[in-house]
Amino acid sequence: MGPWRCLLLLPLLAPALRAQQQQFMEYVERRITLLEERISQWHDQSSRYSTELRDFKNQVLGMLEAAEKEREAMRAEAESAAVRVERLEREVDYLETQNPAPPCVEVDETLMDKQVATAKQRKNEKYTKLTDCSDTIASVRAMKILKRFGSSSGLWTKDAAGSSEKIYVFDGTANDTVYVFPRMREFTLFSATRKAARIKLPYPWVGTGHLVYDGHLYYIRQQGPSFQVIKFNLANKTVVDSSVFPAEEQIPVFGLSPSTYIEVSADEEGLWAIYATKEDEKNMCLAKLDPASLDIEQMWDTPCPRENAEGAFVVCGALHVVYNTRLPSRARVQCVFDVSGTLAPEDASMVYFPKRYGSHASLKYSPRERQIYAWDDGYQIIYRMEMKKKMEV
């Protein structure tokens, strides 16, 4: 095609080219408009997110300020509570100073000699039973490990005579503070002592031979070479009576518990004291104790050895001594002494306790529940006993 023909076609092609150019410009404008809309949308969202972030930041700052104010308020309340507690302690100390002095625990030497002579006169006499109890232990029916609390030595118990459900805990062999839990549940569930009340005794105890009986605590105090039984009223927190134990040259009653010199025990007949002296240092002695006056009503020499003994308790007037070994194994009742003479030693059941952690630091028999509260290397255990009549054993 010649140049002249191209020139003739230019006027014909120009409208088509302009139309394509117009379409292309419209397409570009639409794409730019769409892009601008997206940019505007992104800007709106970014602004909204920035606003929400700023609001959240302000909210968090407000919460932090409120938390700081609450912390300061709690600190002020804690300081105020500490001041009130300190003031209360001062008031309690003042009230204690206003209470009458506890009975004098010093006993006149003449009276002491008279008590010893009277007790020796009644030593090994035939015992007249106060009740018709004729049961004895046949076996350990069940065992329940409650928890681990305190040191390796101590004791825990309920009131052996009353109906109270309170749990009394004596941690250690030399202390002056008793923990009191309102029920078994609080003692079992809580590892700390925050659920327990505290009773501070006027004199520290020694050993693990103490007892809660009919609303009173009977515990052992050492003063020089002598040992005293302190009767403490748990309701009004005062010493009701005290008495020097009428035995000379006492030695630890259990070979495996060198800190215990007197074991106060309760059974269906009342209170008993288990002890040992140098006069017959191989075997234990037993005494019937008057819970009202703390007088010794009667005393017996028993055939039960001290060696390898870890604890003892009385059931229906019969002393049961639990033995172990210095390398702890399975504890067992290996000596029984019945003060009424109705149960011969050879007829008594040799009761075995399930092997647990070590040797028992204390064994407290509950006559109203027919079970034993034991302290084994810091573990608190309940042994439920199977009972039988003495003539059936």
UniProtKB/TrEMBL annotation:
UniProt subcellular location: Secreted
Main localization (coarse): secreted
Keywords: Coiled coil, Developmental protein, Disulfide bond, Glycoprotein, Secreted, Signal
InterPro entries for the chain: Olfac-like_dom, Olfactomedin-like_domain
UniProt feature coiled coil, ranges: 57-98
Secretion signal span: 1-19
GO cellular component: extracellular space
Any one GO biological process: signal transduction
Olfactomedin-like domain: residues covered: 132-389
Secreted is among the record's keywords: yes
Family note: Belongs to the OLFML3 family.
Protein name per its UniProtKB record: OLFL3 protein
